[in-house]
Known about the structure:
globular
Amino acid sequence: MKNLLILILVLCMQLVINAQSSAYLDINNVKARVNTCGDLFWDLYSGDYEVPKGSGIGTIFADNLWIGGYDTGGQLKIAAQTYRQTGTDFWPGPLDSNATTNSTVMADMNRVWKLNKCDIDAYHTWVTNGIQGPFTVDSLAVATMISWPAFSPFGDRLAPFVDFDNDGTYNINAGDYPLIKGDQAIYFIYNDKGGVHTETGGVSIGVEIHAMVYGYSCPDSALQNSVFVNYKIINKSSFDLNNAFIGKWTDFDMGGYNDDYVGCDVTRGAYYAYNGDSIDEGGYGIYPGAQGVVFLKGAKVDDNGIDDPSNNTANGQGYGDGIVDNEELGVTRFMSYYNSSHSVTGNPNTAQEFFNYLSGQWLNGTLWNYGGVGTGTGNSCDFMYPGDSDPTGFGVHGSIPLTPWDETIVGNPPGDRRGLASTGPFTFQPGDIQEFEVAYVFGRDYTNLGAAAGVQVMKNRIDSIRSRFANGFGIESCGCTANALGIEDGMNTEYTFSLYPNPSSDVVYIDYQASSKDITIEIYDVRGQLLKSLKINSQSKQAISVADLSSGKGSAFCKTIIINLE
């Protein structure tokens, strides 16, 4: 087996690579596909959220973000995405200060950036140790770190990073590095101003969205079975968005897609899907699972100059804590609609219908009502199918708590389900950033039969995750393993070397000593294409010309090469 030592020689500050428009988060027990423009957990044809990883069984068909509100003139502005059947409301990349973009920026930013915390740590250690010793980071990871979108083409700071040398720029060869959450993260940026809104048919808002999908490899069942998403939503427009809501839309497929139920847990700030009968024919069998979506951080409450008193806000935060104007909403609405276009409870088709669902109304503008399928004449409500999770009557506006309500109690026929939860209303002012964070938590009981057992495991895991985040958990890593670093067993490190100058645009020198008689140096681009190969003596100083790589050959991959010493 070859023993390879990989060095990175940077010949310029920019990097263009064969960008990935999708990637899998797969650090733990979940394998989840992430696409640009906010399309989560599907390949644009079928569901791609597998849990347990490697089982071939999934829980989610598709998932996306909705946001809407009214400008000061009363015009509805909305951006929302479901299946792309009629079009799109979102495009890749950031916006400029006038809330506009262009085709070049969108094409360049039509990608995702996937990184493991272990690769970041290993590269940072290598650089800060003076670019010495064995290099053990995968070449794609290095290319991703180099191309990390720290700054916008318009000059704004974008993706989070640690400015190790405090010079205000991003340069991984000076010790700077991407700042990610968890042990693995996928980052992307998108907006709602890249074109005409053909999904909702609505008027664009002017929002720029920074999204980080991440997970942990901790030896903890709750974290092993969860995926997290952090959104930073920036109002780049020149107007207030009033009565605004941010929503999470999820089409659940719990193994088999046609025998599901949905519900919400008001106290836990979550909504979820579970099997509507005792056996899942789609793969989970007699031990069906449950899939939850939890709001860990909701919309910020409008400032009013006071520390609002404590109240039940479906796990909102900051109320009555002694700090003025830090309050956040939790889940404030939840509903489920049916796959039909011929009913007030069917698929939304217009901008107003999308916003009605976000804000607590059916397609025709009538309020949801407590009980049955939500269309009766009882108490108006903000949460459908809460079970017994709302003991204070928060979802019925402080009324005396009503009898438990869920799909099992009602006796609905199981079927294909989608759910929409939202946080709001709030006022979204120009330049404001709304940070929104959710967790996707899976539970399954391998001992007790039936759907309720899986739901209880899911709820226990939600409690564990909420407790961690309430105590400041959220950016830590759970540590690295040899496999995570990509280090081969038995790698030979009996050599010394130095490589200089680095960066270089014409000649680089290698001083190398080892027990081998001859050494082969191979220079590759980040696609793995061999650009140059030569042999040197193991006890020599060698000058290598790289001027021919500064343009022309390999230039599409921007003068960044990988040197393998054999």
